Structures are given as structure tokens and as C-alpha cells.
Amino acid sequence: MTMEAALPLLPLAPMSASGVQIHTSPGLVPYPEAVAAMEARVAAIRAGSAPEALWFVEHPPLYTAGTSAQTADLLQPDRFPVHRTGRGGQYTYHGPGQRVVYVMLDLQRPRACGQADVRCYVHNLEEWMIRTLARFGVTGERRDGRVGIWVKRGLREDKVGAIGVRVRHWITYHGIALNVTPDLGHFTGIVPCGIAGHGVTSLKDLGVDVSMDAIDEALRAEFAAIFGPQSVGS
């Protein structure tokens, strides 16, 4: 499915309790098409011609470089395609078995933060992943100075979820990436998010056998719980 046209022009799909359109793409969505689709949807949300959206995708193996990416953190530049992107942050990996959710919201609408507040929005994205993980018996935690969601593994801490956001005219895009069953060896081509000395894990690596459908159901429920009821027309 080519999402460059399909996402912005998508007929109204079922809404979450938060009044946000939800779409899940089958298969692996090419990254350039995803970025083009997000940018088109952001423009449409600002123009009032499309509702806010959550877009659930998986990508083929690739690395993305955020606005703070350091060249030295790309350890294997020829391993997978590398895409420069306008989101905040440094290098990340996307690939099969990782649930990426692109979040396109108007921060000027009243939600849990009560005002247009990017820091509060990021905090809520963190809380979204923490509560989702808790449904499967995994304790995810924040760490000062380290973006993302972390789990304790004895004497070390591993990253299980990543966050990268961009905001244009108070409309958000990019979003979160939760490691469900990805090939963790693919992360060795970068220093994930520029943070050395820590590992990367997944639900599978933590001994949690769960389907992507179950993860999606949990993400949808917790999104509505955190971001609150919101009708499309308000």
C-alpha cells in the first residue's frame, strides 16, 4: 500500500475514545513514503480538512538520523539505508517487529496538558509506553538525560522504547517506537540515540511472548486513557 496518498485522503476510519483517527498499515511501509504522508496529514490537520491521526506501521530495516545526530554514532554506514529526518534526537533503528506509531495531533486542542506544551506532550508519550508495557508485566521507566523508556536488567539498563518528535504550527508528527520482536543485532550499526554504555531490549528479549495485535490494542486503550476524550470537531 502506498501511504503517500492513502493516509491524507483516508476516509474516516474508526475513532479511538480520544476522537483521533486510527490507521494500521499492513506489511512494511517505506520510510520516505511515511514522511511524505505525515507531512501531508500535518498540513491537512492545520487546514481543518482532516482529523488528527495515529498511524501504526512497521518499516523495512533502516536507520534514521535526527537533527542532533553525530556522524561518529553511525558505526556501520553501509549496513542499512540511512534517512535524514527532521525529528528531534539522534540515530535510531526501525525494522520489522518494531511497532512504530506516528502521532499527528494538534497541541492547541485541550487535552491532558491543558495548553500547547511540547514538554508535557513528550511526557505523555513516555507515559503512554510505560502504561502499555505495564499491561504485559514489564516495568518501563524514564531516566533523566536519556530519552526513551528503559527497563532494569540486573546491573544494567536497556532501552525498550524510543521517542522522536517534530512539531510544525503546533501539529505533532513522528512519534514512538516500541521494540516487540525486532532483530536486536540490527541496533549494533549505530549508537542508539547517542547513548553509549547501555543496551537495547525488546518484549521478546524480556521473555514476553505477545502479538503485534495485542500490543496495538493496548496502545489504543492507553492512548485514550492518557490523552482523554476529544471529538474531531472541537
Notable features of this structure?
single chain, 234 residues, alpha/beta, BirA Bifunctional Protein, domain 2, 8-stranded mixed beta sheet, 3-stranded mixed beta sheet, 4 helices, 26% strand, disordered C terminus
Structural account:
The protein is α/β, with parallel strands linked by helices. The protein has one domain (3-227): BirA Bifunctional Protein, domain 2 (2-Layer Sandwich). It is 23% helix and 26% strand. It contains four helices and eleven strands; from the N terminus they run αβαβββββαβββββα. The protein has helices at residues 3-6, 31-47, 118-134, 212-227, and strands spanning 21-24, 53-57, 62-65, 82-84, 91-94, 98-104, 141-143, 146-153, 156-168, 171-179, 199-200. The strands form two sheets. Strands 1, 2, 6, 7, 8, 9, 10 and 11 form an eight-stranded mixed beta sheet that branches. A three-stranded mixed beta sheet has the order 4-3-5, with no helix packed on it. α2 links the parallel β1 and β2 (53-57). α3 crosses α4 (212-227). Mean pLDDT is 87; it is low at 1-12 and 230-234.
